[in-house]
UniProtKB/TrEMBL annotation:
Protein name from the UniProt record: PsaB RNA binding protein
Coiled coil: none
Domain RNA-binding protein Tab2/Atab2 C-terminal: 203-358
RNA-binding protein Tab2-like N-terminal domain residues: 81-184
One Gene Ontology term of the molecular function aspect: RNA binding
């Protein structure tokens, strides 16, 4: 399904076959230049791969204003995907009760909708009516699915979306709406006369321990790698054009528009003789981030809202710990931006899956 990528092939430098628990080599933040057609290996010219690095898949990928003093509607919805947030804001009404807000946008923020709600109207029926008003606009298109990241609101949001014939998708791939909320904290809420520090509800994800990865979803090797941002964006065009499995997002909508095109973006590449079906299964996940867990000596794949999976492992020693820590430091240096790729083997010109990810904290409100 995925053709050879030629000049944009994802080829790793020299690799070594290793056992499942073999250690990777050391990360070096400043790396020598290699061909743009290749991954840049995190260790200087000697990146090693992990045998049977476990690859998860659990099933992924890429306001009309009503009685509200929120920002007005921006355009009408045309996208197949929405991102939604429905939660209380740090605002108090005349009764001293928290004001709630509905935010809806598409991943590109071509469409935006906001509406405030009194806390006496927080239910699926009111939410459904708000969405029906949006969809009733001339030229509005019904999206196929809508992502949301607050698990505590899952019942209300899922019911309202289902009643509107929209698939509800719990997911932290809500990069656009989360960035929008952080932006509104300073530009909208704090300048609203109703703003109150006492009304802030700190939001935290409830993340449990990682689960074991199903055998059918494991790769055969994996490696830490990195690519110049410009090269990565070019490769992601294959995802946008539907030529390979994967997911992407606009850097500007996630607040990353100032990253230079030559900056190195860290990633993980997984190799498998079953690369095509593996990429297809992985695309069924709502992949949020990949993390190098030094304490557990393994990669952690975070999906959905709070699912976590043991994605690969290494034998702990000074070199492997140094590489894992260096990879996480590299990720922090680019505001959490990173990627996951799937291809048949280190020498293959074929790329079967590519996902752009951002390891970021959810909004604090």
């Amino acid at each position: 399904m995925s053709p050879a990528l030629g000049a944009q092939r994802l080829v790793a430098p020299r690799t070594h076959s290793r056992s499942l628990l073999s250690p990777p080599s050391v990360v070096q933040p400043n790396l020598p230049t290699v061909r743009a057609a290749q991954y840049r290996a995190l260790p200087s010219g000697q990146r090693r791969t992990q045998r049977r690095g476990q690859v998860v898949a659990h099933t992924s990928d890429t306001a009309v204003q009503q009685a509200s003093t929120s920002t007005p509607c921006k355009a009408v919805p045309k996208s197949t995907v929405w991102e939604i947030d429905f939660c209380s804001r740090p605002l108090l009404d005349e009764r001293g009760k928290k004001v709630w807000e509905l935010l809806i946008c598409d991943p590109e923020r071509n469409f935006e909708y906001s509406e405030y709600f009194p806390n006496s109207k927080i239910n699926s029926a009111e939410l459904k009516r708000a969405m029906e008003r949006i969809l009733a606009q001339p030229g509005a298109l019904r999206p196929e699915k809508a992502r949301f990241f607050r698990s505590q609101m899952q019942t209300i949001i899922t019911k309202a979306l289902t009643d509107c014939q929209i698939k509800a998708v719990p997911s932290r791939r809500c990069f656009t709406v989360m960035s929008w909320i952080n932006e509104r904290l300073d530009t909208v809420y704090k300048v609203d006369p109703r703003y109150s520090d006492k009304a802030q509800s700190l939001f935290q994800l409830d993340l449990g321990p990682p689960e074991a990865l199903p055998d059918a979803l494991r790769g055969e090797q994996w490696a830490f790698v990195q690519l110049p941002l410009g090269t990565l964006i070019q490769m992601l065009k294959k995802v946008q054009e539907g030529e390979i499995f994967g997911g992407t997002f606009l850097l500007a909508t996630a607040g990353l528009q100032d990253l230079p095109m030559d900056i190195l973006i860290p990633g993980v590449v997984v190799f498998s003789r079953r690369a095509l079906p593996l990429a297809a299964w992985t695309n069924g996940l709502e992949i949020a981030a990949v993390k190098a867990d030094v304490q557990r000596s393994c990669l952690i794949l975070e999906t959905g809202v709070n699912q976590r999976w043991k994605y690969g492992s290494w034998r702990p020693n000074e070199d492997s710990i140094g590489e894992a820590e260096g990879w996480e430091i590299a990720k922090e240096g680019v505001s959490g931006l990173h990627f996951l790729a799937v291809q048949p083997d280190p020498d293959s010109e074929e790329l079967n899956g590519l996902w752009l990810l951002q390891d970021c904290e959810p909004p604090s409100i």
